[in-house]
User: Which sequence fits this backbone?
């Protein structure tokens, strides 16, 4: 796929290269009409500015990038791990926290030699563009294995099944599900794995017992509190798509006068540091984010150096039993 250059845009627009440069950078004394026309033309032609100069395409920048929409909470551990792994392999690291609009422009702007991507704003057409440009990428949120692209993913589907098996083994049958963000890999896979396994065991999750926690403590609290006000039968247990959602759920349960785990067991996912210090200490599924960070950079380095072709790697979860779950107490009449 031929790379569109600034000369191509200038030729198509009937203006000088300098005018195009000024229009796209916001500099120069141009009429707004001219600036808008050139910007729209560059977008339609899929022009990607070269941030550091064309000579870097051959020599490399010595930098790897992490592209995401957030580094809050749990992701801080991921960033720290990747940074240390980059240093160990002789690379620097740039972190890009951005919305959808600038994502592909920065990815293909020759600013980094390869990228780890955790960003739901990257669409299928962007994936194809990266593939056509043979840009080295490791994805943390979708299954892709190509010549220059790998995926390093949590086994989120299996983690969902593990959660169902564990709660079932404790005697829980009516289970409330606090789902993650829709259209995210981990959220969708945990949900599917959990619901598939519950259905296989003959206890499908009822629609009224599926809530959106959105991987967020406050959202999970609000969703759980609203559920409790509806007066439906209390669930035996709750499976939360991440630990933050579990914390919000426990707070709402306690606020309504219920005890965890005496009245309701709560199971989280991720095993963030706070999980062991929370009251009650949270039973959860450890997803090994440190391993994901290290493995993603090692995989990316090998792709950048053309030592291998891409593949999909899965990291299995591990059940960590603490105090927030217990066996169901059956009443004898």
Assistant:
């Amino acid at each position: 796929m031929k790379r569109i250059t600034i000369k191509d845009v200038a030729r198509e627009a009937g203006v000088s290269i300098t005018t195009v440069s000024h229009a796209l950078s916001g500099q120069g004394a141009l009429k707004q009409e001219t600036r808008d026309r050139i910007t729209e033309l560059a977008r339609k032609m899929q022009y990607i500015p070269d941030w550091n100069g064309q000579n870097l395409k051959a020599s490399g920048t010595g930098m790897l990038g992490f592209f995401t929409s957030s580094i809050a909470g749990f992701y801080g551990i991921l960033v720290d791990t990747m940074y240390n792994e980059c240093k160990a392999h002789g690379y620097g690291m740039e972190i890009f926290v951005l919305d959808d609009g600038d994502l592909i422009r920065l990815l293909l702007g020759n600013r980094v030699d390869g990228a780890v991507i955790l960003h739901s704003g990257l669409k299928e057409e962007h994936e194809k563009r990266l593939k056509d440009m043979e840009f080295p990428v490791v994805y943390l949120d979708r299954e892709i294995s190509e010549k220059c692209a790998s995926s390093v993913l949590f086994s989120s589907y299996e983690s969902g099944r593990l959660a169902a098996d564990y709660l079932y083994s404790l005697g829980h049958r009516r289970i409330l599900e606090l789902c993650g963000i829709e259209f995210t890999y981990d959220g969708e896979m945990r949900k599917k794995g959990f619901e598939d396994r519950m259905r296989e065991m003959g206890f499908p999750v009822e629609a009224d017992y599926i809530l959106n926690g959105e991987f967020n403590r406050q959202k999970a609290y609000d969703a759980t509190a609203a559920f409790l006000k509806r007066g439906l039968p209390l669930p035996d247990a709750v499976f939360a798509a991440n630990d933050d959602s579990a914390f919000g759920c426990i707070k709402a349960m306690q606020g309504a006068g219920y005890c965890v785990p005496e009245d309701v067991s709560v199971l989280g996912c991720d095993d963030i540091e706070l999980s062991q210090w929370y009251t009650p200490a949270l039973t959860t599924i450890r997803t090994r984010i440190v391993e994901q960070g290290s493995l993603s950079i090692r995989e990316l380095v090998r792709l950048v150096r053309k030592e291998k072709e891409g593949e999909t790697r899965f990291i299995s979860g591990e059940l960590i039993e603490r105090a927030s779950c217990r066996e169901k107490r059956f009443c004898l009449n």
Notes: Residues 136 and 305 are 9 Å apart (CA to CA). Confidence is low (pLDDT under 50) at residues 51-59. Residues 185-200 form the longest helix (16 residues). The two ends are 74 Å apart (CA to CA).
